[in-house]
Amino acid sequence: MVWRLVYKNDGKVISLNETNGKTHTIHNIFDGISQEECFNKIDELQLTYYTTSGDTETMILFSGGTRTILEQE
Questions:
Q1: Would the pTM count as exceeding 0.70?
Q2: 72, 56 in Cβ contact below 8 A?
Q3: pLDDT on residue 7
Q4: Of the candidates 1, 37, 42, 44, which lies 20 to 30 Å from 60 by C-alpha distance?
């Protein structure tokens, strides 16, 4: 199992999932051994990461190992 980070050239994260399968995409892929390694890659590449739960969309900003969570409804 690896943590697969799929992201677009415009800096947006498409998905971050634990997987052992193939991903067919035209976007960039980074495989990490842990979720934390993928978070570090998001920080390094200055990507924008959104996650959704119900009606709430959450944007997580990564900067220098610090995560800032901004909830938007």
A1: yes
A2: yes
A3: 96
A4: 1
